[in-house]
Amino acid sequence: MTTTATAIGTTQVYRVYIKTTPQAIWDAITKPEWTERYGYAGRVDFELRPGGKYIGYSSEGMRSMGAPDVGVDGEVLEVDPPHRLVQTFRMVMDPTMAAQGFTRLTYEIEERKNGVTRLTLTHELEGAPQLAVLMSGGMEDQGAGGGWNWVLSGLKTLLETGQSLDPAGHQ
Amino acid sequence: MVAGMTDDDLVFKALADPTRRFLLDLLFQRDGRTLTELEGELEMTRFGVMKHLRVLEDAGLVVARRSGREKLHFLNPIPIQLLHDRWIGKYRERYASALINLKTELEDMA
Question: Rounded to a whole number, what is the distance in Å from the CA of A103 to chain B's nearest CA?
Fold first, then answer.
């Protein structure tokens, strides 16, 4: 998949302004002690080099409901800390989503004025309609979390206040 | 960001216009559209649509990305989520807790 081949309707873009440093956002995305405190609350394991492995583990709560240990897997494609991270991303927890294969995530972290940092997440979801529904929050009422909107709002709250938005997981 | 306006001000201002809400709904139905596609859905000049998109971008509700020679517009739902958390969820909670207090008082009287 090339960057110019963004198919209309299959890419999702999320942007959030956070009163924090680019390094803090980078750490919150790539370090397990941070990822277990917001969003899907699973620990991550990043090999931060091109070709490195990415594993997203299921949270304790999800495992207690029967989820497998590994929820998401992928490969690291580009690493430029603390500004840019590109990786592939495949939900393996659900067989339909697993069969739809790898999608592509790009995190762009830019320092703005007055101690604010802008995080833009682009998720290229060509060929993965089920994951697209999940990540846009369309399965929240089935207890599957609110997607990226919910994950990134939680990230903002955590970095700005030190509090988890929704420590119990989700409503 | 416009000087003197908070993020919430920009989002409320952007949402306080039916054309801009219509543009958001169009992107909600199908994301990542060009100006030309959006313009085709509106009885308005290209310049008018550009101005509205600019207000939506300033509020963070729309993010424009280049894809080859095209500029695609994406709906960013996060400002609406934050506005909900700050301005709507709170008041719903208060309404609920007022009802709970009423129940407690009535039961104490009984």
Answer: 17
Q: Which long-range contacts (CB under 8 A, 24 or more apart) does A133-140 make?
A: A134/A91, A134/A97, A135/A12, A136/A12, A137/B77, A140/A170, A140/A171
Q: Which residues of A touch B60 (CB under 8 A)?
A: 15, 17
CB contact under 8 A, A8 and B33: yes
Asked whether this complex has an ipTM greater than 0.90, the answer is no
Query: CA–CA separation, A107 vs A57, rounded Å?
Result: 19
% residues pLDDT > 70 (chain B)? 94
| pLDDT tens readout for residues A14-45 | 999 999 999 999 999 999 999 999 988 899 99
- Residue A164 pLDDT more than 70? yes
Which residues of chain B make contact with A151, given a CB cutoff of 8 A? none
Q: Is the Cβ pair B78, A9 closer than 8 Å?
A: no
The minimum CA-CA distance between A148 and chain B, rounded to whole Å, is: 9
What CATH number belongs to B1-76? Answer: 1.10.10.10
Kindly state whether residue A4 falls inside one of the protein's structural domains.
no
- What would the pLDDT profile of B11-52 be if each residue is shown by its tens digit? 999 999 999 999 999 999 999 999 999 999 999 999 999 999
Number of domains in chain A: 1
